[in-house]
Fold this sequence. Notes:
- The chain is α/β, with parallel strands linked by helices.
- Helices cover about 50% and strands about 10% of the residues.
- Among the domains are: about 5-70, no CATH class; about 340-450, no CATH class.
- The radius of gyration is 21 Å and the shape is globular.
Amino acid sequence: xxGSKLTKTVQTLALNKALEYLDKDPEMNVQKLMEIVDRFSxxxxxxxxxxxxxxxxxxxxxxxxxxMKVWDLDPGVRRTFFQNxxxxxxxxxxxxxxxxxxxxxxxxxxxILLDPTSACNLHCTGCWAAEYGNRLNLTLDEMDSxxxxxxxxxxxxxxxxxxxxxVRKADIIALCERNPDCEFLxxxxxxxxxxxxxxxxxxxxxxxxxxxxxxxEEANDGRRGQGVYEKxxxxxxxxxxHGLPFGISTCYTSxxxxxxxxxxxFDKIIDAGALFIWFFHYMPVGGGAVTELLPTPEQRxxxxxxxxxxxxxxPIFSMDFQNDxxxxxxxxxxxxxxxxxxxxxxxxxxxFIHYSNVNIRDCTLLEALKSPIFMxxxxxxxxxxxxxxxxxxxxxxxxxxxxxxxxGAKSTDYExxxxxxxxxxxTVPYAENWKPQADTLWAATQAGKKDA
Length: 452
């Protein structure tokens, strides 16, 4: 047996032993899990986060409450999550990713985002998907090939975007079956989750939905259609009743930021059973972009403050991808932590930035990571030392403009090609307005760390 296989075997046995111990009395023995994680973590791996989890366990605060909610899940699903997400994707996978990245001189992603289809079952206001229809699809074998190639690089986390991925739920389940050592997550409107699909989730054990919500009923149904909000909450009831994990995905704008950052919103999704919520800043991409929906500097600052306040009081894992870049060292796109492959096969550095030099049907995953636009990301990250200005499009548009032009990357937009100057001209005013507030906020954050 090779050294790497022996290491994986030992770590798997250790994790399984710890979980068996926890299952007997999770409230008393949860500390054991962190001891195992600490023992087998690569040097320097998420040290602050692990410290925070240990402190939460000791103080029995909101994070401890969240850990205990995990033990309400189906035991098989819970065990598979720990095996695939903690051990394969995060511990063993991260070590392999670093090894390949050093050898090949390029970024290697922790997660790969895939669009199974351009189709959607809803007709949301302002969205291209329903009008575009079922024209573009990655086949099951193509997705499986991507996953197999990814595992060779150490990538065990796969996330479906769209379109509405659940239009292809039979193929998604088949992909989970073919790759039981990976963890799969899907952004979804939630309306296609039913009793039969919950049974399929229980059977494969390695699939987690992230349900899109934009606030309360009026905001959701005003955009997505009458009765959608009720269907979403029915889906969450089903998932919770089957002991299945799920989370929420929320895009905040100048129109809905107050609702989605309110205590009432947090409490409602927590009561529904959500274990995590991912916040995304509105991105003005494509011909239908509405710049008026971009949050003002004051609104974004308030989002920053509210989410962090609830993070220390509410039993739910929350991440604000635009305001939490300090925890991951800036922009995570371009394969640094993730990349995106659309339903046409174009390999893009970011799910929001549609420029590419390569298509997965014509190259390997590793070749895509070495393509000009991806190497420009690799060589340019971080794009700003202020971690509240991480994005090369939204806060540093001159960086994206230069990268696209210098690499000759082409627009991969589904609807119509968008010139990089058109896109970046749209974000320049936002970047200029946000900079003073971001610099002030970042300076205060850094000063607070020094005083701590």
